[in-house]
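User: Could you check the structure of this?
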Amino acid sequence: MSSAKAVVGSILTGEFRIRPEDMKPGATLADLNIDSLTVVELIEAVGQELGVRISEHEVTQWHTIPDLVATVEAKLAQRSAEPGR
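Assistant: Sure, the predicted structure tokens are below.
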């Protein structure tokens, strides 16, 4: 399991009270009752935990938890590829 997946899962279960069994790969954010306000809170929590910044444009591409995790993993990879890291 990637660190991004673990952190996102931990935030969703801990802060947003989403049950792990509900976080199936095909479940949409709407299936999990994650609305636009919750997405903003989720972005902030993930950003603080992993030190990544996610734009509103990137958020509009999310439909499932794997979409969210893929965005976070890409951000982490991009950050680690920067000179001086």
